[in-house]
Amino acid sequence: MTKVETKIVDSHILIIRLNRPDVRNAIDGETAAALDEAWTTFRDTHDLRVAIVTGTGEHAFCAGADLGAVHTLGPGPDASPGERRRFALHGRGYIGYSRQVDIDKPILAAINGDALAGGLELACMADMRIVERHARFGVTCRKRGVPLVDGGTQRLPRLIGLSRAMDLILTGRFVDADEALQIGLANRVVETGQSLDAALDIARELCEVPQTAMRTDKTAAILGFGMSLEEGLRLEALLGQYALADPDLFEGALAFKQKRPPKFQHLD
Fold first, then answer.
1. Rounded Cα gap, residues 76 and 67, in angstroms
2. 140 CA to centre of own chain
3. Which domains does the chain have, with CATH numbers?
4. Distance (Å, rounded) from C-alpha 132 to C-alpha 142?
5. Taking the CB of residue 230, how many other CB atoms lie within 10 A of it?
6. Rounded Cα gap, residues 47 and 14, in angstroms
7. Burial class of residue 221 in the structure, from the number of CB atoms within 10 Å of its CB (0-12 exposed, 13-18 middle, 19+ buried)
8. What is the model's pTM?
9. According to the model, what pLDDT value does residue 89 have?
10. Eight-class DSSP state of 185
11. Strand 188-190's sheet: what is its strand order?
């Protein structure tokens, strides 16, 4: 059985599906390597415009690291202190590309069930989370003595604010879909079994807009978040030059003036 399944939909949408329902889609070393490959493929393939990450079954999006195979994650239990330090400083992530910020294309998470511990960190990699009503979030590794090392302490506060993030990080309590929507962790709440279809609807919309401006805006928003306002504005202006020189901008403006649908070159 393939632990991570990938599928291209409509030529431009990559679905990345965790496929270990017997262990609640938990991530071992092999799964992490497959995720890393999938994310890299998405980043580097020109025709792929949107990625959707989801899980198999109705019970779990991802339960985090597979504690029964935790020795297969990262540099391993026999690694030297130097190897551990190098991985901590320069590694791509324990659960597969989770510590990277160089994907400028939209990422959606179709949360088909519980997103716990590292699964919550994986969900936080996404730009939007479409959450099924029965799903829950939680830093459940708190009760196992396992730290957040795949972006949770950094991405979660950026998504929901430091105070709310500290509540989740310190207590490890569960957050249901309604609370997730209230605090900004969920972007949409849908009924059971509908998260992937809802994510595909959004992905198709994103595939039809000019890509350069959307990607530079995403990059400016993510990289500029921790900067001062002055630095962030400078970054926004710098990245915006790529979109301002894009032929799609001129076509969009001309189409607006001529009151016709635009014909964007970069979407051919």
1. 13
2. 19
3. 4-207 (3.90.226.10), 211-267 (1.10.12.10)
4. 24
5. 8
6. 10
7. middle
8. 0.95
9. 84
10. S
11. 4-9, 13-18, 50-55, 107-111, 128-132, 188-190
Mean pLDDT of 208-229: 95
In tens, the pLDDT along 73-95 reads 988 778 888 998 898 888 899 99
Residue 268 has pLDDT above 80, yes or no: no
Phi (first) and psi of residue 220, to 5 degrees: -65, -40
Listed residue (92, 90, 96, 83) closest to 36, CA to CA: 96
Give dist(CA 15, CA 35) in Å, integer. 11
From CA 221, how far away is CA 233, in angstroms rounded?
10
pLDDT tops 80 at residue 266: no
Provide the phi-psi class of 211: left if phi over 0, else alpha when psi is between -120 and 50, else beta: alpha
The whole-angstrom separation of Cα 81 and Cα 253 is 57
Q: How far apart are CA 51 and CA 16, in angstroms?
A: 7
Tell me the two tokens of residue 72: 């297969």
The set of residues, in sequence order, having a beta carbon less than 8 Å from that of 66 and lying 6+ positions away, is 20, 23, 26, 27, 28, 31, 72
Cβ contact 34:41 at 8 Å: no
State the residue for tokens 């990277």.
Answer: 100
Q: Tokens 């949408």, residue? A: 13
Band the pLDDT of 1: cuts 50, 70, 90: confident
Bridge partners of residue 52, in order along the sequence: 15, 108
Percent of the chain with pLDDT over 70: 99
Closest CA to 35 of 94, 84, 83, 85: 94
Task: Please report which helix (H) or strand (E) contains residue 234, including its range.
Answer: helix 229-244
CA pair distance 237, 162, nearest whole angstrom: 28
